């Protein structure tokens, strides 16, 4: 089987830095070994001092095949995420594939406009648990299952499978 190269933009709120780091520490080893997928990503922490951050973020989103969204109350409180990043992958005209991940609990009420349509997509969680609600062992399983779901989604095997 050939390898499917995919560039993915990692969208997350700066206030969730510790949770993001915890998830990525568990997730990255699995992503490196995904059969059929050569997974690379870019995130705002890759911006160097003096670079035009807004232009760089929008250019990287445009170059990416998918956007991995680490959802939390802080994510939805960010004006830049809500106004720039979410529209790039949510909605009928959006050219990007949204890969929403439940990082920290937030209300999933479909009537909430603050969610910008993200709640209309299958959000990855471990059962009903957001990443921050998981024990250490569950966090390891969360990362493994997320890697499998990313592989399925990016290779076209299946949509996000229900866990």
From TrEMBL:
What are the residue boundaries of the TIR domain, all occurrences included?
Answer: 9-110
Q: Name one Pfam family in it.
A: TIR_2
Supply the Gene3D superfamilies for this chain: Toll/interleukin-1 receptor homology (TIR) domain (3.40.50.10140)
Name of protein: TIR domain-containing protein
> Which terms under GO biological process does the entry name?
signal transduction
SUPFAM superfamilies, per database record = Toll/Interleukin receptor TIR domain
């Amino acid at each position: 089987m050939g390898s499917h190269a995919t560039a993915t933009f990692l969208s997350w709120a700066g206030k969730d830095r510790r949770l993001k780091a915890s998830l990525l520490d568990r997730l990255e080893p699995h992503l490196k070994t995904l059969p059929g997928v050569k997974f690379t990503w870019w995130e705002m922490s890759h911006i160097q001092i003096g670079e035009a951050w807004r232009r760089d973020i929008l250019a990287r989103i445009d170059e990416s095949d998918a956007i991995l969204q680490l959802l939390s109350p802080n994510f939805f409180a960010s004006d830049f995420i809500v106004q720039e990043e979410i529209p790039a992958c949510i909605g009928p005209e959006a050219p990007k594939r949204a890969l929403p991940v439940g990082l920290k609990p937030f209300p999933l009420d479909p009537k909430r406009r603050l969610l910008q349509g993200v709640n209309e997509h299958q959000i990855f969680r471990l059962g009903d648990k957001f990443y921050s609600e998981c024990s250490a062992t569950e966090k390891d399983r969360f990362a493994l299952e997320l890697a499998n779901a990313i592989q399925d989604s990016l290779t076209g095997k299946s949509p996000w499978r229900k866990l």
